[in-house]
Write a sequence for this structure.
């Protein structure tokens, strides 16, 4: 007989009996991944030095710093680890870039690399090598850039930079990811002719993230015309070096706010912007639709729940990165849910529709994939191992399920470091203020 050693890779999610008022916590959420990586890219392309404050430090954002340094930008840490000082330089090639599993790195860096003088090779994790890339590679080719991808349209590939990109007009099908649009737009003020980009696909996910791209470009003095649907026109020009502060990551706030609904308590997130392009801001309405109460006052988002969760029918195409959190709540609800408009989640860190359906079913729940989403029918759940597929949001979804269901173990919870390295500490801290402490 062999006795299995305890698996160090399994994190037992703390469980809490719902008791109104028991959970009462404030959670300070670090900076937005999406804003951090956009500000870093623009700073490296700027005509003068800049500073990014309140930056997220995580695998995805540190990989972005590494990529921009490899292309010649000088980036140094400030007095706080969340401050970066960026001194742009002539972009140089002969570089190999590790994209990890970061969509923002693999989709935002190619157009920057195309401006470098020399060869730049991009590669990433095994899971990154299956994420869609072809539309952005073909888009760059249409703007005069030579790329060698062995005809696969996937990582790894080599960009043969000549020090400039002609630019001009290009059609791109961005139905698999908004990042194809953002990745071409971000560098386009540095193209000789600027850029006119037209999205040609049947659907366009994550429009708020494209609006975010346009907003940060305009803040940097770039002229962007977005007055026609699905067409963006960028005038060539200088990118201003700036001193910017990153908003907290509202999508990463999601699992903590969701905990208020599961536990029947209150969670507060300070630093919540009064207006933002982050799709994570939709959490307030989503949690309200699921039976919670959300209230923003003096920059603090407060969510209160009763412990009873209502299912919902919702189109999440604008905020696909919230789907794992909403799916976990739906599995704990009293009525069925339907999540729609998120077929593109099949190309995220993993096939998230398959992963969510499999893992909810593994715990005794009922979750079925549809052509563009999930149908989740509540059933009593039991403990078990939640597999995470190197997906940070699968790990946080597991934590939400474990808050209600005893015996949930999250495999490779360290994968949360993709965007939130301190996740388990923050989760424990959120629960530590409880009268009796979390029940492991
Ligand atoms: O531009 C960005 O920062 C992002 C865009 C979205 O990508 P998709 O449009 O591929 O969903 C989002 O899901 C991702 O987490 C971040
Ligand atoms: C889809 C996500 O990430 P990425 O930036 O790698 O696409 C996400 O964070 O939910």
């Amino acid at each position: 007989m062999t006795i299995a050693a305890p698996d160090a890779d399994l994190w037992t999610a703390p469980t809490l009996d719902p008791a109104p008022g028991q959970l009462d916590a404030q959670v300070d959420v670090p900076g937005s991944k999406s804003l951090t990586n956009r500000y870093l890219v623009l700073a490296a392309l700027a005509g003068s030095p800049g500073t990014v404050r309140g930056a997220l430090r995580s695998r995805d954002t540190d990989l972005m710093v590494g990529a921009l340094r490899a292309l010649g930008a000088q980036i140094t840490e400030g007095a706080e680890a969340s401050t970066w000082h960026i001194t742009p330089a002539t972009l140089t090639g002969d570089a190999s870039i590790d994209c990890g599993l970061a969509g923002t790195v693999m989709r935002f860096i190619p157009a920057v690399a195309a401006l470098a003088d020399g060869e730049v090779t991009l590669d990433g994790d095994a899971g990154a090598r299956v994420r869609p890339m072809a539309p952005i590679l073909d888009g760059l080719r249409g703007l005069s850039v030579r790329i060698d991808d062995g005809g696969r349209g996937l990582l790894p590939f080599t960009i043969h930079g000549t020090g400039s990109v002609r630019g001009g007009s290009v059609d791109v099908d961005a139905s698999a990811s908004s990042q194809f649009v953002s990745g071409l737009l971000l560098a386009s003020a540095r193209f000789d002719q600027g850029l006119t980009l037209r999205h040609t696909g049947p659907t366009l996910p994550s429009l708020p993230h494209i609006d975010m791209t346009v907003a940060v470009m305009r803040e940097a003095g770039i002229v962007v015309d977005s007055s026609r649907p699905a067409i963006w026109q960028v005038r060539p020009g200088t990118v201003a070096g700036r001193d910017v502060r990153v908003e907290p990551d509202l999508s990463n706030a999601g699992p903590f706010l969701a905990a208020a609904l599961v536990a029947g308590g209150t969670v507060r997130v300070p630093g919540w912007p009064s207006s933002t392009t982050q799709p994570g801001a939709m959490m307030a309405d989503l949690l309200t639709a699921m039976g919670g109460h959300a209230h923003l006052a003096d920059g603090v988002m407060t969510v209160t729940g009763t412990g009873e969760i209502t299912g919902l029918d919702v189109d999440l195409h604008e905020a696909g990165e919230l789907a794992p959190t909403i799916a976990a709540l739906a599995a704990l609800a009293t009525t069925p849910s339907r999540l729609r408009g998120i077929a593109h989640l099949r190309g995220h860190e993993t096939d998230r529709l398959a992963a969510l359906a499999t893992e909810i079913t593994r715990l005794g729940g009922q979750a079925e994939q549809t052509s563009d989403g999930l149908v989740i029918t509540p059933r009593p759940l039991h403990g078990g191992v939640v597999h995470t597929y190197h997906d940070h949001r699968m790990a946080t979804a597991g934590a939400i399920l474990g808050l209600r269901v005893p015996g949930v173990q999250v495999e490779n919870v360290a994968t949360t470091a993709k965007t939130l390295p301190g996740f388990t500490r923050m989760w424990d801290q959120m629960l530590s203020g409880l009268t009796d402490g979390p029940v492991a």
